[in-house]
Amino acid sequence: MLTSMDTRSDTVTRLWFPLDNAANLFPTVISARVTTIFRLSMELTEPVRVAVLQEALEHICPRFRYYLVQLKRGFFWYYFEENPGMPRVIEDSAYPCMEMPIKKARVYPFRVRAHKNRIAVEFSHMLTDGTGALTFLRALVGEYLSLLGVEVSDWGDIFRPGTEPDPEEWDDSFKRYYRKGIPVPKSIPFAFHVPFPLERKGVYHLITGIIPLKAVLEKTKARGVTITEFVAALYIDAVQSVLKELSRQEKRAKSRIIRLMVPVNLRKIFPSKTMRNFSLYVLPGIDTRLGDFSFDEILKAVHHYMRGEVNEKLINQQIARNVGSEYNTFIRMIPLFLKRLFGRSIYNRMGEFLYSGCLTNLGAVTMPKELVPYIQSVEFVPAPSPVTKTNCAVVSFGDFLYINFGRLCRDSSVERHFFQGLVRMGIPVRILTNE
Question: Which of 5, 43, 138, 287 is the most exposed place for a label (fewest CB within 10 A)?
Fold first, then answer.
C-alpha cells in the first residue's frame, strides 16, 4: 500500500512504496536491450489533437497517483517515490518500447506518445502489468474523446477524473496472497532460443497480423481450446520449424526443449483490485528430442498443460518461491550494490533462459458504445528480449484479433512460419510492419 515518508519536519512529505515482487529484479537488469517496456495503443478515426490529449492526460493522472512516481535507490532495495509535476505527451518513434532513462531523477516509468491517429502508452514492467496499462489507456482515450464532445451514457469500469482511487489499487497482492511453508516449484532445464544475431541497439522490428476474430473462434471452438492455447501452439510450432531448419551441428549446441512463457492474470484467480503487477506465468512446451510434433499434437499438449497448471494451488507455489526470497533475512540484508551484481544472472536463470518466447494475451478490449465508432484498432506490443529475441502479444477489439510480434533480430523466420500456419488453415491474415 502507499506509504507516507517524512525524513525531517521541514521537508515536504512524499508518497512512496516499495517495488512489488514481480518488479524487484528489473532495475538491476535494465539496459538498451532489456528495457522492460511494453506498449498499448489505440488507432483513432481522426488525427490526434496533441493539446487536447495533454489536457486529458492531466485530467486522469490524479486518478492514477501510484503511476506518478520516480524510481529511487535505497541501501537495500529500489523503491518508487512521488514524482512532482506532470508527464508530457511526446511524439512517437519508429521503434517502440526502446530505452527509457528510468533511473534518472524526475523520469516517470511510463510515457504517452502520439502520432497521426495513434495514442500510445508505454509502461515499464517495474510499474504495472498489461491490466494496469490497459486500464490507464482506456481512461486516457475515454477522457480525450469526451473533451472532443463525445457524450457517454455509461462509463462502466473506466476510471474517470475526479474519482478517488481505491486503496487496494496500491496493493502488492503478491505479498497479500503469500503463504509461508508451501513447497516451491521444481527447477527445469533451459529452453531453445533462436540463434539469430541481434540487431543494432535501438532497433525493434514489429509485425502485426490482423485476423477476423470469427475465423479464429471457429477453429478454436471446433477443437475445444482457447485462443491463447491455439496461438501458443502455433507459436511453438513456428519455433519448432526454425529448429528443424538448423544444421545438425547447430542443433547439437542447442537445447531441444521449446517452451513458452504465458503470463496468467492472477486477478482472475485471487480477488484483487491492484493496478500494479499481479501476474505470474505457466510454461507450456514440447521436447523435440522425442521427435517432431504435429500441430495437433502440440495443441493437445498445450491445452492439457494449461488446464492443469492454471490453478490456485500451483500458482501459490510460484508466489511462495518469489515472495519467500524477499522475507529471507540473509537476502534482505545484502546491500543493493551486491544485489545488482547478481541480478542479471538470477533474472536469466529464473526467467528468460527457461523459455523460447513469451506469449501474452490481454483478451478483448471494450469501450463504451458511444466511443467505439471513433476507434479503429488496438495494438499490444511485448517488451523486447535479447535472449528470446522474438516475443508475441495478442489483443482483440471489435471483430478483429491483433497478433503482434516484436523482435530484436533481423531474421523473421518465427513470424513467417507462424502466419503461414494460419494461412494454411484457411484463416485470412493482413500483415502490417514498422519497416
Answer: 5
User: CA 59, 60, 63, 64: dihedral to nearest 10 degrees?
Assistant: -130
- Cell matching residue 129: 502489468
Q: For 152-165, give one letter per residue: b (16+ CB within 10 A) or e.
A: beebeebbeeeeeb
Tell me how far apart the alpha carbons of residues 330 and 396 are, in angstroms, rounded to a whole number. Answer: 45
- Joined together, the cell numbers standing for residue 241 give 520449424
Separate counts of helices (H) and strands (E) for the chain: 12, 17
Mean pLDDT of the chain: 92
CA 224 – CA 303 distance, rounded (Å): 9
- The three-state secondary structure class of 63 is helix
Residue-wise DSSP of 200-261: PTT--EEEEEEEEHHHHHHHHHHHT--HHHHHHHHHHHHHHHHHHHS-HHHHHTS--EEEEE
Distance CA 38, CA 30 (A): 13
Residue by residue, DSSP assigns 105-170 as TT--SEEEEEETTEEEEEEETTT--HHHHHHHHHHHHHHHHHHTT---S--TT---TTPPPPGGGG
Phi, psi of 239 (to 5 degrees): -65, -40
Per the CB < 8 A criterion, the answer to whether 203 and 277 are in contact is no
419 by DSSP, 3-state: which?
helix
Tens of pLDDT along 122-147? Answer: 999 999 999 999 999 999 999 999 99
Closest-CA residue to 242 (of 26, 418, 10): 418
404 forms beta bridges with 208, 393
